[in-house]
Amino acid sequence: MSKKLFQASCLSAAIIVAPCAMAIPTEAASMPFNDIKNGGSEAELYKAVQELYSKGIVFGTTNTMFSPYQSLTRGEAAYFLAKALNLETKKVENPGFSDVPTSHPYYGPIAALATKGIIQKGANYHPDQFIKRSQMAKILTLGFDLQKSTTLSAPFSDFTKDNETNQYIQTLLDYGITQGTSSTTFSPYTDVRRGQMVLFLYRLLEKNDSSFYVIGVE
Predict the structure, then answer these.
(1) Is 139 helix (H, G, I), strand (E, B) or coil?
(2) What is the pTM of this model?
(3) In this predicted structure, what is the pLDDT of residue 9?
(4) What is the C-alpha to C-alpha distance for residues 120 and 116, in angstroms, rounded to an integer?
């Protein structure tokens, strides 16, 4: 199975609702963040942030900090994914979330994802709440149109009670995008960190220039 991914655009790094001090580069820019080490356990993270930042895809919580271990809000996650998928965020249908008015900084991305069916429409979106690992698995699987796994082969003892959610988790494992928090746990209700989301997007977008293949066997 071969799939091509969408081209990236840009990402956000707000802490709660409104974006923090940030500057999205319009052209290639050097790595400005001093809270990620270029080596050791952070080597891939450094490369991911550096590359996505240089393309105007991500930016930090300040001009010199990326805050990779800070939890990611649902609003930020929507912005990250919508921009990574290069979705239209200006001329969008209002999904009707009462907590996401048209004046909300993430209204466009949230509406774009809802229009594409990547997130479900409802009364509220809860943009200020932190996104969980299980929720992340779903939006990435749907957003990048991955072939959803139908068999659970991971040895996790903490899969959710919802089988479809577990299939999204298994999908990212099969594609080599993420892994468990231990050999037997995935921690589906744990917050996704900013650095983790960048790594997931980096790994997905990195496969864009080659055949997108499944590395897991069900």
Answers:
(1) helix
(2) 0.82
(3) 37
(4) 9
